[in-house]
Amino acid sequence: MKTALISVYDKTGIADFAKELVALGWKIISSGGTAKYLSDVGIEVTDIAEITGMKPILSHRVLTLHPKIHGGLLALNTPEHLEELKKNEIPWIDMVCVDLYPLEEEINNPSATKESVIEKTDMGGVALIRSSAKGRRITICDKEDRAKTIEWLKNGEPNREEFINNLSAKAEALAAWYCSISGKYLSQGVHEGIFGEKVLACAYGENAYQKPASFYKIPRGTLGKKDQLTISDWVLIAGSPLSYNNICDLDRMLQTMTHIGAGFEKNFNKVPDVVIGAKHGNACGAGVGESGLDAVDKMLSGDLHAIFGGCVMLNFPVDEKIAEELIHKFAGDGRRLLDLVAAPSFTPEAIEILARKKGKCRILVNKNIKKAGLDSLDRSPRFRYVRGGFLTQPNYTFVPDMSKCLFDTKIIKDIILAWAVGCTSNSNTVTLVKDGKLLGNGVGQQDRVGAANLAILRAGDKDLTGAVAYSDSFFPFPDAPEVLINKGIKTIFSTSGSINDEKIVELCKAKGVNLIMLPDSEARGFYQH
């Protein structure tokens, strides 16, 4: 008879799992709380104390940390080890099913203390899964693996070594991540770790010679339970697997889309229909409208050259009419090629229209992007590799409050759109918007005049009279505002902090231009510096 040790903090579903094991002829041993729970639902279980001959000691701190438990996990299947187990009355343990105290949850509890965190730091559970992994036992530390294991057992344990190895690897990774949380907390951030699970192998990275390239998802607890817009939450329903660049574009569009939604919700209590067109991560078109078709029309007319081969994100469902607009509007006799389209949902007809040969158009679905607003902002820390180390910083979560702004509502809406696009584009950026439509996005420039001129260039022959301009930081000189004003810009939103702020204020007053300046320390919009 095989033996499984079950000891879990969260009892959800554990009785069903234990019953399946018993039906397969397994013996269950368990610790106090779990043993009582299983016994109460009619499952025969042996308490660990009966094996060790010791009741829990030191306020229940020491229970499973005993040679008669870890010996049963670490013993090799050799005559010498088996004889030693027999001599010391130690049972061979074939499986460990353990979860860990919710340490991160306690750390994030506003009322937590160092003492409460230490008490929630699991020692026995971590030791059990590591001993089980080293002993090449069946090691289950993830609820999702319980049903998989039962099915595997019923099927005769195919590919046993590979199956057990994969479970062991997951257990070791979990233990490392768990210990890193404790280390980070106790050191007050001096020690930091980055952990992830590989979920996608990309054909290559940004360029064909950069192989291998992979996408790793971060443990859910690290991101917070409420975030349902992570990259791994998007479902590919048509097209080829995502490339490295596709994933980068999706992440960038998520930042822009959620900032637009957050800005409108904060200032107007309503998120409109929004469409973003992006190329190399930066928005080349963006439209806000009362209808989806209106928003698509505005997005496409932003930059018809750039959107070809680009990516699109919508915060409303895509039907046949929307898909037709995306592919054929302003496209002449041909059709517009898109690499990626992301939305809350697609009709079958829309998928067929958007599809390209060889799956070149990836179609992604996540219902949570629908009218996503303030709660959708990514609040998890951002980190970035630099040579020999990595940088961390809080995420981009500033949203301007325009409640004291006396401008016309239409202008404020344009300000919000310009800000949301500009502050999620590569700095330095100047962004031009008019009538809920992105006209030109001058991104990644070394100077403000260059950014202003590039935005105007990207706008082409569009009429900029009465448009709004956003600058992601202050203007060091009046030259860039003057370039914008001379093209008909009537509203400028920037930050203050330049020694020439007064000159810029005077220029805008003299030209009759609306000027909003928030402190650079509060509202600077640098992104992907």
Q: Gist?
A:
It holds the Pfam family AICARFT_IMPCHas. With about 525 residues, the chain is of the alpha/beta class.
Task: Give a description of the structure.
This protein has 20 helices and 20 strands. A hairpin with a 2-residue loop joins strand 9 and strand 10. The strands form 5 sheets. The protein has a 6-stranded mixed β-sheet with strand order 8-13-12-11-9-10. The protein folds into 3 domains: 184 residues, Rossmann fold (3-Layer(aba) Sandwich), CATH 3.40.50.1380; 142 residues, Cytidine Deaminase, domain 2, CATH 3.40.140; 124 residues, AICAR transformylase, duplication domain (Cytidine Deaminase, domain 2, 3-Layer(aba) Sandwich), CATH 3.40.140.20. Helices cover 39% and strands 18% of the residues. It has 529 residues and is α/β, with parallel strands linked by helices. Helix 8 runs antiparallel to helix 10, helix 12 runs antiparallel to helix 16 and helix 14 packs parallel to helix 15. Belongs to the PurH family.
Mean pLDDT: 94
**Total domain count:** 3
Main beta-sheet strand count, sense and barrel state: 6 strands, mixed
- Using DSSP, what is the number of strands? 20
Overall 3D shape: elongated
Proportion of beta-strand residues: 15-25%
Features:
Cytidine Deaminase, domain 2; 3 domains; 39% helix; Rossmann fold; 20 helices; alpha/beta; 529 residues; six-stranded mixed beta sheet
